[in-house]
């Protein structure tokens, strides 16, 4: 398959978990009606972004994977014949939780999961309180519509993660994410932060010759203190923007990606071929000094 249609679901969330799941399913249906073959939902789409506080009650939002949400989405994937990328709060065992994305193939089968590797701990993003770092390594999934790599939010900032995923054969990289602006910031800071976020991900597309799809939530949360900035986008294998969402509206968009472009760009910009892998051993150090 040389071309694939990807659907992005950028939406706001409410407190009720079932209401968010129902809303996401309706938007998956909308994307499928527009021709989507792979539909990506945003990070932790079944809830408000709860990591703004350290609250033990929020662990009640977690569920097993596979579990109730993947069961519901599997039925929808099978009915519509679409692949669904679903980011969920995973309860692995008592007291052990992950930020995890499940992949459901177009026949409804559960292909597996990716557990978020890089976990932030910033003001209003206290994820280390909730999530154990992923231990499954980086992953690619052979779906009906192509081999996809999935990373999650904070992973976006790390070229090592995207490189490894690309080297594993990912034809498209997907980033479910949840990131926003503190509403007491000035507009210049907001613009700089968003541009940095978009730029680093587009650079992953350029460096690896792989299209990148980034899907973010939108809307005010945290009692109005946080505006999730939307801005979901699709970049081709040369980093060119094929679609850019608004910062303040829910959107369901379908974008066609030409997978053959990866071969073209890798031939003309042979970054993978020219890698000096024998010189890269120091990258595994925390910092290159005498200690």
UniProtKB/TrEMBL annotation:
InterPro entries: Aliph_Amidase/BUP (IPR050345), C-N_Hydrolase (IPR003010), C-N_Hydrolase_sf (IPR036526). GO terms for molecular function: hydrolase activity. Gene3D superfamilies: Carbon-nitrogen hydrolase. Keywords: Hydrolase. Residues 4-259 form the CN hydrolase domain. It comes from the Bacteria. Coiled coil: none annotated. SUPFAM superfamilies: Carbon-nitrogen hydrolase. This is Carbon-nitrogen hydrolase. It comes from Sphingobacterium hotanense.
